UniProtKB/TrEMBL annotation:
Domain of life: Bacteria
InterPro entries: DUF167 (IPR003746), YggU-like_sf (IPR036591)
HAMAP family: UPF0235 (MF_00634)
GO CC terms: cytoplasm
Annotated organism of origin: Sphingorhabdus lacus
Name of this protein: UPF0235 protein EUU25_02795
UniProt-listed SMART domains: DUF167
Family: Belongs to the UPF0235 family.
Coiled-coil portions: none
Amino acid sequence: MSAAPSTQDIIALLNVEEEIRLRVVPGAKVERLAIENASLKIWIRTAPEDGKANKAVISLLAKTLKLPKGAVTIISGHTSRDKRVRITLI
């Protein structure tokens, strides 16, 4: 397993609208992040039910980037593993 991407690595993936593409793997044994194919891949323990996985994604991204949860917003893909997320850098 490779090292987790740094904050700078993740920020480098942002486009001009401060959005990032990501792929979510819910129900994982271990929570982790990786960069694959110019997008962020996130493994979370939470099951994809009632929006819990989306909340876990927001929480993990905010914690990793040392930002408040309100700075991370899912723009599209609420019911999909492929999501677009806006990250408001402060």
